[in-house]
Amino acid sequence: MTEENTQVEKSHAHGYGHYIIIWFALLILTGLTVAVAGLNFGNLTIITALAIAGLKSFFVLKVFMHLENEGKLFTLFVYISIMFLVITLALLFADYSFLQGR
Amino acid sequence: MSSTTSDVNVSYLDYKGKHSGLLGWITSVDHKRIAILYLVSMLVFFSVGVTFGFLMRLELIAPGKTIMEPQTYNAIFTLHGLIMIFLFIIPGLPAVFGNFFLPIMVGAPDVAFPRLNLFSWYLFIIGGLLAIASIFMPGGAPDTGWTFYIPYSIRTTTNVIPALFGAVLLGFSSILTGINFVVTVHRLRAKGMTFWKMPLFVWSTYATAWIQVLVTPIIGITLLMVIVERTLGVGMFDPALGGDPVLFQHLFWIYSHPAVYIMIIPAMGVISEVIPVFAQRTIFGYKFVAGSSIAIAFLGSLVWAHHMFTAGMSNTAMIIFSALTFMVSIPSAIKVFNWVATLYKGSIRTEPPLLFALGFIFLFAIGGFTGLIPGALSVNLNIHDTSFIVGHFHYVMFGGTGFGIFAAMHYWWPKMFGRMYNRTAAKTGFWVLFTGFNLLYFPMFIMGWLGMPRRYYDYLPEFHIYHLISTVGSWILITGLTILFTNLIHALRKGEKVTERNYWNGETLEWITPTPPYVFNFDKEPVVEAGPYEYKRNDVLEPALEEEKA
User: Fold this and answer.
1) Of B545, B538, B534, B531, nearest to B502 (Cα)?
2) Residue A97 contacts B, CB cutoff 8 Å
3) What would you measure as the largest C-alpha separation in chain B, in angstroms?
4) Distance, in angstroms, between B158 CA and closest chain A CA?
5) What is the pLDDT of residue B6?
6) I want to staple B52 with a disulfide (CB 3.0 to 4.6 A). Which of A102, B80, B95, B413 is the partner?
7) Nearest CB neighbour to B313, from listed A87, A88, A95
C-alpha cells in the first residue's frame, strides 16, 4: 500500500503545469500532422506521419500513462513491444515502399 | 481468504467451495479447474473439427460429387480450419496445460489474475459458440476459408460476420491468457527459481504468451475492420471501394503466422519435459533450448509474408521474407538436435508420453523441412495453394502440436486426475494414429507437387489414387484417436488409482505436489535450489518426497 501511495505521489510530483505543457505539445504536433498531410514527400510521407504519431504516443505513454514512474522491467517491456511494432512496420513497408504497379 | 489450511489441503477435484456441481466448476477461479474447463470444451470442439475433416475426406474419395454439394464442401473446410485452429490447437497447450501446470511449475498457488483467467474461458466459449452458430443461422455457414481473404469475404452472402466476431472474441481470450502467464512468470516464481532454473515448458509458454500479447490485437482489429467494411462499405480492403486486398493479407498473416508458433512452441516445451524424464538424463543444452523458444517467438513473428509470395508483393519484400523464413529453421533445429542428444545414452523407457514425443520429432521434422521448400521463392510459385501446403501444415500442426498435446495428456493425465490409463492401449492407439496420420497426409505432398490445388471440390482422375489412400488414412487416424480418447476417458473412472506424487520420476515442481494437486498446489511453499533437470542433485524433490514416504 505504501509503495502504491509513493507511486501516486511521484506521478503528481510534476504538478498540473507539466501536463498542460505536454497537452499543448500534443496539440501542436496534431497541427503539424494536418499541415504535412498536404505535402508530398514521396516515400517519406508515411514515415513523417508515423514519426509525429510516434512522438505523440511517446509523450502520452511517458507522462499521461506514468511510464516515467514505473520500474525498469515494466519500462523495458513497453519498449520491447514498441520495438516489435517498429520492426513489423518496417517489414510491411519493405513491400509498399518498393512496390511498382499495384 | 477465509479458508483454513485443512479446507484447502484437499484435491482440487474434491474441494467444496461456495457452489457445488457444474456451478462449482464454471464459477471457480482455481487455475486447475479452469484448465479442465478448457480441456473439456477444447475436446468437444476438436471432435466437431474431426467430424468435418472426416466428411471432407469422404467427399474427396472419388472425383465428382460423392456425399455433398460444392457449397457444403466450402463451408465444411472453412469451419474445419476455424475450429481446429482457433478452438483446438491454439488453446490446446497454453490454455489447458499452461493453465494447469505453469503456476505449479514455477511454485505458485495460482496464476497472477485468477478472475481474469476465468473471464478468458468465458470469452473462449462465447467466441467458439458464435463461430459454430454461424452454421445454423439464416444465410448459411461461412465459405471463405479460415483466412477470410478479401474481396470474397466482403461479398459473400454467408454468415461471415458472426464467424469473424467469434474469432475476435477468441483473440481477446488469448491475449488475456498471455498477459496472465507473463505476469505469473515475473511475479509469482518460488523462492530460488531464477529464470535459468525455470522448466522448459514454462519457458516455452512464456515465449508464447509474449506472441499472444503482441500480435493477437492485430488480428482483432483487422477482423473488426472487415466487419466495418461489410456493414458500412468503408473502402479499406476491397479494391472496388479503393481499398487494398493485399493489405488485408499482410495484417491477417502478421497474426496468423505467429499463431503457428503459438501452437508449436508450447508443444516443444512439452517435448522438452518428456524427453529428459523418459531418458532419465539432464536435458542437453538447457540454455539453448530455452533461448531458442524466445528466438523462434521473435523470428517467427517476422516471417508472415511468406504466405503471400504470389499475392503481388515487391521483390525486395519477398527476398527479405524468404531469408527470414530460412532463419527460423535455425532455432527449431537447435531444439531437435538437443532433444536427440538428450536421448543419447539415456535410460530410455518407451512409455506412451515418450512415444508421442518421438512421433512429434519425426513428424515435425518432415513438416519443418517441407516448410523450407515453399520458403524458396521460385518453388513457392509452383506449389502455392496446392495440397503440398496442406500436407506441410498438417505435419507441423497436427503431427507437431497435435502429437505434443497427446504427449502432454499422457504425461500429466494421472497427475491431473489421479488415475492411470491403460498403457498398452495408449501405445496401440499411438501406432494406429501414427500410421493413419502418414497415410492421410503424405499423399498430399505427392499430389500437390503434381499440381493438385487445395480447397478443390473435384479433381482430375490422375489424382484419384492419392485421394483414395488419403481417405483410407483418415479412417485409420480416427480409429487411433478413438482408441486414445476412449482409453483416457475410461481411466477417469476405472483407471488404476495413482496417489504417488512422482510416478514418472521427474524433477520439476509438479512432482512434489500431491496427485491430484491440492487447491493451492503445495503443502508448503517450495524453495528451489537446483535446475529442473539435474537428476540426483535436486534438493527440492527428495526431502519432500521422503517426507511423503515417511
Assistant:
1) B545
2) yes
3) 76
4) 29
5) 57
6) B80
7) A95
| Residue span of the structural domain in which A6 resides | 2-96
Q: Which residues contact B540 (CB under 8 A, 6 or more apart)?
A: B509, B512, B526, B527, B528, B529, B530
CB contact under 8 A, B312 and A97: no
**Cα(B360)–Cα(B399) distance, integer angstroms:** 6
CB of B254 within 8 Å of a chain A CB? The answer is yes
Query: Which chain A residues are within 8 Å of B258, Cβ to Cβ?
Result: none
CATH number for B11-549: choose from 1.20.210.10, 1.10.1740.10, 1.20.140.160, 3.40.50.10490. 1.20.210.10
- For B422, which DSSP code? -
Does residue A101 sit within a domain?
A: no
Q: Does A88 touch chain B (CB under 8 A)?
A: yes
- How far apart CA A84 and CA B214 sit, in angstroms, is 8
pLDDT digits (tens, 9 = 90+) for B381-438: 999 999 999 999 999 999 999 999 999 999 999 999 999 999 999 999 999 999 999 9
- Mean predicted confidence (pLDDT) in B23-45: 95
8 A C-beta contact, residue B60 and residue B459: yes
Most confident of A22-36, A51-65, B417-431: B417-431
Q: Is B192 exposed, middle or buried (0-12, 13-18, 19+ CB in 10 A)?
A: middle
CA dist B250 → B150, B245, B307, B380 (Å): 11, 9, 9, 17
Please tell me if residue B314 touches chain A, with a CB cutoff of 8 Å: yes
- CA–CA gap between residue B526 and residue B518 (Å, rounded): 14
- Identify any residues that bridge with B191 across adjacent strands, giving them in sequence order: B527
AA letter at A13: A
Q: Which of B183, B294, B313 to mutate to test the interface with A (most CBs of A within 10 A)?
A: B313
Q: Is B160 exposed, middle or buried (0-12, 13-18, 19+ CB in 10 A)?
A: buried
The residue among A95, A96, A99, A102 with the most chain B CBs within 10 A of its CB, best to mutate, is A95
Report the domain count for chain A. 1
Q: Within 13 A of B314's CA, how many CA atoms are on the CB side?
A: 15
End-to-end CA distance of chain A, in Å? 58
Report pLDDT for B168. Answer: 94
Q: Please report the ipTM that was assigned to this predicted complex.
A: 0.80
Q: How many CB pairs under 8 A join A and B?
A: 40
Q: CA of A23, closest CA in chain B: separation in Å? A: 27
pLDDT band at B371 (very low <50, low <70, confident <90, very high): very high
Of A94, A100, A102, the CB nearest to B320: A94
Distance CA(A36)–CA(B377), nearest Å, equals: 38
Per domain, the residue ranges of chain B are 11-549
B183 touches chain A (CB under 8 A): no
Give A10→chain B minimum CA distance, Å: 23
pTM of the model: 0.90
Is the per-residue pLDDT at A70 higher than 70?
yes
Mean pLDDT of chain B: 92
Which among B312, B320, B321 has CB closest to A102?
B312
pLDDT at A6: 53
Nearest-CA distance from A26 to chain B in Å?
Answer: 25
- pLDDT at residue B420, rounded to an integer: 97
Q: Provide the percentage of residues in chain B whose pLDDT is more than 90.
A: 82
The answer on pLDDT for B113 being more than 90 is yes
